[in-house]
Write a structure and sequence with these properties.
The protein is an all-alpha fold and about 190 residues long. It is about 60% helix and about 0% strand. The chain has helices at about 15-25, 30-35, 40-55, 60-75, 80-90, 95-105, 110-125, 130-140, 145-165. The radius of gyration is 17 Å and the shape is globular.
Length: about 190
């Protein structure tokens, strides 16, 4: 789009080099998003802190994936949907859940569907959910902490989705078999 820089260890600003080194140690490669984020050490660190904190919530692997992928799909992030499909596989999330999220079809449990519905409502209403929407989320077994944790996940994914849109981040080779485009059906978030 604007010829966004994509850094490696040699070209990155000094403040980003330790973050890239950590990425290389963790993944054995430099993810494309991290290469783009490294242009701003503060944005890069902020993204990593949000990611770490979100993974430390009470959400299990299925629920983390539901929040991440619901946002990724709603934002139509060409990079994050395949990446989180691969991450879900590494987290032992069932393909049934990943496929339902990618294809916007029914999830296997009512509780996961309630989490997706609430996450969509938060995204689409920019946090202005109704009392009835909150009540439905609570009736599904979630509480106030889960509401705040959905917002935390939304903050993380908004950063990555928007950055990937602007930078047109190429999908990492390891995730290319999982490429995704949105179907014509969108889930209603009543």
């Amino acid at each position: 789009m604007s010829n966004f820089p994509s850094h490696d260890l040699d070209s990155a600003p000094e403040g980003s080099k330790p973050l890239l080194e950590n990425s290389l140690k963790a993944f054995g490669r430099l993810p494309g998003l991290h290469k783009v984020l490294s242009e701003s050490p503060q944005a890069f660190e902020g993204y990593q802190v949000l990611h770490k904190l979100f993974t430390e919530t009470d959400f299990d692997a299925d629920e983390l994936t539901v929040v991440w992928q619901t946002i990724n799909v709603e934002h139509e992030c060409h990079y994050c949907v395949p990446a989180h499909t691969g991450i879900a596989k590494m987290m032992k999330v069932s393909d049934d859940i990943s496929d339902a999220l990618r294809n916007e079809t029914a999830l296997p449990t009512a509780k996961l569907e309630a989490l997706r519905t609430f996450t969509l409502q938060m995204v689409r209403s920019r946090g202005n959910v109704t009392e009835d929407q909150m009540a439905a989320f609570f009736d599904a077994g979630y509480g106030h902490r889960a509401v705040l944790d959905v917002v935390l996940g939304l903050a993380q994914k908004t950063m990555s989705n928007y950055i990937n849109h602007m930078a047109q981040t190429p999908v990492d080779e390891v995730f290319r078999p999982l490429l995704w485009t949105r179907s014509n059906t969108h889930i209603a978030a009543e």
